[in-house]
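Thread: Newbie trying to understand structure tokens

Hi all, I'm a second-year student working on a class project, and my supervisor (Dr. K.) asked me to get a predicted structure for one chain before our next meeting. I've only ever worked with sequences, so writing a 3D structure as a token string is new to me. If someone could post the tokens and maybe explain what I'm looking at, I'd be very grateful. Here's the chain:
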Amino acid sequence: MNHSSTEVEAETIEPLRYLSKVEAAAIETELLRDYKFGQQQLIEIWGHACAIAITKAYPLSSMGRKQPTVLVICGPDQNGCIGLVCARHLRIFEYEPTIYYPKRSSHSLYQDFTVQCEKMDIPFLSYLPTEVQLINDAYNIVIDAILGLETDPASVKEPYSGILVTLKQVRIPIASVDVPSGWDVEEASQDGINPEVLISLTAPKKCATSFSGKHFLAGRFLPYDIQKKYELNLPEYPGTDCLIEL
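---
Reply by user tm_fold:
Sure, no problem. This is what the structure looks like when written as tokens:
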């Protein structure tokens, strides 16, 4: 069907939708319940996309150190599991990830993803150095896969509150998965960590409206009917890419 130039222009200027916590949870529930996506499938899609985003933001050729070292910090819930998948794919892409996963989940699916990383010979730290210079010296970037939609930033406890204190002091770049840890999903944080890169999953969250760093979106897999129902107005992804820089 042909569209007039006026109609096309109207379609292209629709603003990208930024989701509330409730909307993001509702979309994920529909994907699992109505569209029969599996949780493992979604985590794999998101983790792979996060790894691709890291390769675009920090290509191997740009690494300042001889070794392309990456520290991936994983929390106890789904964001942490996405971090595990991201680390595995980064290893395949010839980066050298190290994982800090202080509270391993008893969820069998999360345990499976952990074993996959172990079988790829990805090292796991037993503790996170509190001396920030050690982190700055050992790694090129930190991937923040700590706290996600499930977490109320006002109720963050140890070890994660201490990890956030450390991350606020590091000088190397931080890339956050979906929501920067310590931020409220609904609004940008003034005193949280300050990531250089944000990788939004499915659609960006409201807290990302004022984010000024490099921002990627991984939501190409979304069925069209969900995009339409929630008026997401997702951008046109280039070629066959699974993510886009906003």
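A couple of things are worth pointing out once you decode it. Confidence is low (pLDDT under 50) at residues 1-11. The helical segments are 5-12, 21-33, 39-57, 78-92, 108-119, 132-138, 160-167, 224-229. Feel free to ask follow-ups in this thread.
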